Amino acid sequence: MFTAFDVSTSGLVAQRTRLNAISSNLANMSTTRNEYGEPEAYRPRYVTFQTDTGIETSGGGAGVRVASVDQSTEPPNMKYQPGHPDADQHGFVAYPAVDMTTEFVDALEATRAYEANIGVIEITKDLGAQTLRIIA
């Protein structure tokens, strides 16, 4: 029973990491400079999950872990804004290749997966309580 908690907890941690990456992408979707103040568009980050065989239940369930958090290699979106302080010699400004709709859908999916893991924890807790009530 306690392994089921571990599996669900690994899902919560993984989805939290994914939501952090999504919130970072949305927060920086208009960022045209890097952390050193140089003109460079923010690179969106994407989380990759991997099965964690270190957390397995007797029924064959397995945990999940974050395999990597990678930066996008997609080229930035170029907008013609000749008056912008970060415009190049041709008047184009590099904006991050962040699609707000895709990020919102990913955030919704991560939120639902997070809620599902919480639901499994609640059900597992209730099963344990009912088992103890029957035994006692």
Automatic annotation (TrEMBL):
Keywords on record: Bacterial flagellum, Cell projection, Cilium, Flagellum
Subunit structure: The basal body constitutes a major portion of the flagellar organelle and consists of four rings (L,P,S, and M) mounted on a central rod. The rod consists of about 26 subunits of FlgG in the distal portion, and FlgB, FlgC and FlgF are thought to build up the proximal portion of the rod with about 6 subunits each.
Keyword Protease found: no
Domain Flagellar basal body rod protein N-terminal stretches: 6-32
Domain Flagellar basal-body/hook protein C-terminal per the UniProt entry, residue ranges: 90-132
InterPro entries, A to Z: Flag_bb_rod_N (IPR001444), Flagellar_basal_body_rod_CS (IPR019776), Flg_bb/hook_C_dom (IPR010930), FlgC (IPR006299)
PROSITE patterns (UniProt xref): FLAGELLA_BB_ROD
Species this chain originates from: Posidoniimonas polymericola
GO cellular component, one term: bacterial-type flagellum basal body, rod
Record's subcellular location: Bacterial flagellum basal body
GO biological process: bacterial-type flagellum-dependent swarming motility
Keyword Ion transport set for record: no
Family: Belongs to the flagella basal body rod proteins family.
Descriptive protein name: Flagellar basal-body rod protein FlgC
Pfam families per UniProt: Flg_bb_rod, Flg_bbr_C
